[in-house]
Fold this sequence. Notes:
Layout: E1 2-3, E2 7-8, H1 55-84, H2 91-109, H3 114-122, H4 131-145, E3 151-154, E4 161-163, E5 166-170, H5 171-189, H6 193-209
Parallel strand pairs: 3-5
Antiparallel strand pairs: 1-2, 4-5
Helix pairs in contact: 1-2, 1-5, 2-3, 2-4, 2-5, 3-4, 3-5
Amino acid sequence: xxxxxxxxxxxxxxxxxxxxxxxxxxxxxxxxxxxxxxxxxxxxxxxxxxxxxxxxxxxxxxxxxxxxxxxxxxxxxxxxxxxxxxxxxxxxxxxxxxxxxxxxxxxxxxxxxxxxxxxxxxxxxxxxxxxxxxxxxxxxxxxxxxxxxxxxxxxxxxxxxxxxxxxxxxxxxxxxxxxxxxxxxxxxxxxxxxxxxxxxxxxxxxxxxxxx
Length: 212
C-alpha cells in the first residue's frame, strides 16, 4: 500500500480488524482501579513516556490511534453499511468523527495549522491542494456548526474534487486517506526528529492529564 508522498509503509501498517480483549473497562473517562494492561483508549494505562522515540513507542502509539479512533470509526462505517446499505443519512455523524480524529492525530506531530500540515505531509497527493479548505470548510464548519455551508460530502468513495467551485469528496475515500496518512505519519516518525519531539511532548501531555 502506498502512503503519503510515494512512501511505502510496511512496518507500521494499520490493522483495523477486531482485537481480542479479556478486560472490559469504561468506554470513556478514567479507570478508577487501573488494570495492569494497556488499554488503548484509556491514557491512564498507556506506557510511560520514553526518553526518545523508539520502535516500541511507535507501536504503542499505533495501537492507540488504531484502537481508540480509526477502528471504532471503521466499525461504525461497516455497521451502517450492513444496516443501511450505504452511509446515506448516517454520513454526517461519521464525517464529524473522521474530522475530529484527523485533528487529534495531527496534534501529535504538528503545531500550528496542524491539520493542514498533516494532510500536506501524509495524505494522498490529490488532497494536498485542499488542506486549508478541509480544515476551514469541513472540520470547523461541521464540528462548530454541525452543517456544511460551502462544501459537499458524498456517502461513497468518490475522489476529492472541485464541483461548481465547491470542494467535494466521498466519505469512504477520505477515510482511506486518513488511515493511509496515519500509517505514513508513523513511518516518518521513526526518522523525523521534529515529529519525534512534538509527538513525545503531546503523548506526555495526554498521559499526564489522565487520572492515575
